[in-house]
Amino acid sequence: MGRNLQPKHKASRRFGENVADTVKSPLAKKNYPPGMHGPKKTFAKASEYGRQLMEKQKAKIIYGLLEKQFRLTFDKAKKMSGDLGRNFLVLLESRLDNVVFRSGLAPTRRLARQLVSHGHFTVDGVKTDIPSYLTKSGQVIKVKDNKVKKDYWKKIKENADKIEPAGWLSFDSRNLSIIINSLPNEDELPKNIEAHLIVEFYSR
């Protein structure tokens, strides 16, 4: 399974926002771009092409994808009817690893991807260990019975009242399951990704 292994703390400083997939932002200590000039260095104004490229790179890092995976998802979105940018974000959000992250069962996408890859979940009763699996409205994602007794899931159950899933998801703490009520609508899509810039980049 390919993963984006770029230094995420440096990337966060380059983009000026936390894309490090960590609970604590790297910008808390170093809120300036990486490089030899340190705090004196400022965020340079990018060209239109530069903005498009930066937005694509940022989205890849946020979702932890390599270029091939990212482009394949974009090509799938092109075949759908409706707004391309919105469809692209919906597909990224509907990845199984992202759904686990958005449900609150994992604090980062990296851990969510690891849990999926290690076979912790079923989708509609079928073991699914592919992080890129695209979920659909109405599906139920459940922690496998033989994994429930692991310490990680015991802690999740103990703190179930603190779990706050995204608005398009429901969490059943008794069965450790996620219900996909619908795919995210316009208001529920991430606001820190300007999908139109990515569309423009791939449309050059």
TrEMBL record:
Question: Which biological processes are named by the entry's GO terms?
Answer: ribosomal small subunit biogenesis; translation
Q: Where is the Small ribosomal subunit protein uS4 N-terminal domain?
A: 3-93
What GO cellular component term, any one, is given? Answer: small ribosomal subunit
Q: Where is the composition biased (Basic residues)?
A: 1-13
Statement: the UniProt record of this protein carries the keyword Ribosomal protein? yes
Q: Which residues form a coiled coil?
A: none
Region (Disordered) residue spans: 1-20
Superkingdom classification of source: Bacteria
Keyword tags: Ribonucleoprotein, Ribosomal protein, RNA-binding, rRNA-binding
Gene Ontology MF term list: rRNA binding; structural constituent of ribosome
Q: Which residues does the UniProt record annotate as the domain RNA-binding S4?
A: 94-154
Q: Which family does it belong to?
A: Belongs to the universal ribosomal protein uS4 family.
Assembly description: Part of the 30S ribosomal subunit. Contacts protein S5. The interaction surface between S4 and S5 is involved in control of translational fidelity.
User: What is the protein name stated in its UniProt record?
Assistant: Small ribosomal subunit protein uS4
